[in-house]
Design brief:
The complex is a heterodimer. Chain A is mostly helical. Chain A has 1 helix and 1 strand. In chain B, the strands form 5 sheets. Chain B has an 8-stranded antiparallel beta sheet. In chain B, strands 3-6-5 form a 3-stranded antiparallel beta sheet, with no helix packed on it. In chain B, a hairpin with a 4-residue loop joins strand 5 and strand 6. By secondary structure, chain B is α+β, with helices and mostly antiparallel strands. Chain B is built from 8 helices and 18 strands. In chain B, helix 6 runs antiparallel to helix 7 and helix 7 runs antiparallel to helix 8. Classes of the chains: A mainly alpha, B alpha+beta. Chains A and B meet through strand 1 of A and strand 2, strand 9, strand 10 and strand 11 of B.
């Protein structure tokens, strides 16, 4: 009798633990999904403003969020001459 | 950074300010209105502009606005400095050469022959009274400020934008810069390659000052079977016959850059280069009709190096 009730209590404990873990994972997944959407918004922002070609040294703002996409390795910039803001030329319409 | 493209004085204009505060944005958005105001004073293509009224004043004294007075005084100084090679007293020669309306409306081909305007007067022959800001011209003195007014306007606009942040104004190729942008040591400015207009010959790095290009590569029209252009050599009263196709100059301000570019273009590569080298505040690139490029000694200081 005693063995049976102990076994039953153990079963309940396993069920509680399983539910708790499932709940935690579900919440984790839920927040991770939100983080992913935030992260994608950050990435979609234009990295170069029309006239900001001169500040090529400025790094794009990125945030690493739990559950978001893995940080991508950034290839080093090989262009040292920034794109011109404007061009001087003989006057034309 | 706020950037505004617009059209004025028959050319494409650009105003940039390296600031996002509302007062700076408001200032840069006011630039087209400033240009409209200046164009109404300085344009020879507007019948009712102040300059047109002055050109039709037939020797009568005429009180003028602060803008016209200022541009007149600066032009007078530049005429002295260049021994009359760069002067706004070229209107009659321009009209004789066929440039009698805005370039947008100019026919590609005209049949009238060019007549040489002999011994055009100098601006110094105009009468002036500083106390009443009044000018009076001899009958044969008519002005066209042309590119000079663009350089002046670009510089004035930058002076007005300066208190709000680092600024750049490009008036149809005449560029004025107040100081380096916040995130860099200098502004990056392209120099158009006249032989390959889709690409740049060089990329300049300029912290402050003026850049201008004068050329005979674009404003061209046919008169009596010959190609003409708008750069008049006042010494002969005809479009300049120079070995230079375009001259780009960096100077302490946009007006000086515009005047220097015109002087070099009219004078030709040899005299022009000697003149450039004699002034420690100037640097330049000349693209010759042959396709060759000549750089002044100080020019490498302004080139981005990889």
């Amino acid at each position: 009798m005693q063995n049976r009730s102990t076994k039953k209590w153990l079963d309940i404990q396993i069920v509680i633990a399983t539910l708790a873990m499932t709940f935690v994972l579900a919440l984790w997944n839920l927040f991770a999904r939100e983080s992913r959407s935030v992260a994608s918004v950050v990435v979609v922002e234009p990295l170069v403003q029309p006239a900001s070609a001169v500040n090529s040294s400025a790094q794009p703002q990125t945030r690493i969020l739990l559950g978001g996409p893995a940080p991508q390795a950034q290839s080093p910039s090989v262009v040292s001459i920034p794109a011109p803001v404007t061009t001087t030329r003989s006057s034309r319409p | 950074m706020k950037r505004l493209d617009f059209h004025a004085m028959g050319s494409r204009m650009l105003a940039v300010i390296d600031s996002d505060v509302p007062s700076a944005i408001f200032a840069v958005e006011s630039v087209p209105a400033w240009f409209e105001e200046w164009e109404q004073v300085l344009s020879r293509f507007r019948f009712d502009s102040e300059l047109s009224l002055l050109n039709r004043s037939h020797g009568r004294p005429m009180p003028v606005s602060e803008t016209l007075w200022d541009v007149f005084q600066v032009a007078l100084g530049m005429e002295n400095e260049t021994a009359g090679v760069v002067t706004p007293v070229i209107l009659d020669a321009l009209v004789q050469a066929g440039y009698d309306r805005s370039f947008d409306m100019l026919p590609v081909d005209t049949v009238s022959a060019a007549t040489r305007v002999l011994e055009p007067p100098l601006l110094a022959m105009a009468g002036q009274d500083p106390t009443t800001r009044t000018l009076w011209f001899p009958d044969d003195l008519h002005l066209d400020f042309g590119g000079f007014s663009k350089g002046w306007a670009a510089q004035q606009a930058v002076y007005r934008l300066m208190p709000h942040g680092p600024a750049l104004v490009d008036a149809g190729g005449d560029i004025a810069i107040s100081g380096p942008p916040c995130a860099s040591t200098a502004w990056s400015i392209g120099v158009l390659d006249p032989f390959h207009p889709e690409s740049n010959l060089e990329t300049l790095r300029v912290e402050r000052g003026g850049i201008a290009t004068s050329g005979v590569d674009y404003h061209r029209w046919k008169q009596d079977g010959h190609w003409n252009h708008h750069i008049i050599d006042p010494r002969i009263g005809l479009p300049a016959s120079s070995d230079i196709l375009t001259a780009t100059i960096i100077a302490p301000d946009a007006v000086r850059a515009e005047v220097a570019a015109k002087y070099v273009l009219i004078s030709g590569s040899k005299t022009g280069l000697d003149w450039l080298e004699a002034d420690s505040l100037l640097a330049g690139i000349m693209v010759l009709q042959t396709g060759e490029s000549i750089y002044s000694r100080r020019m490498p200081e302004y080139l981005w190096s990889e």
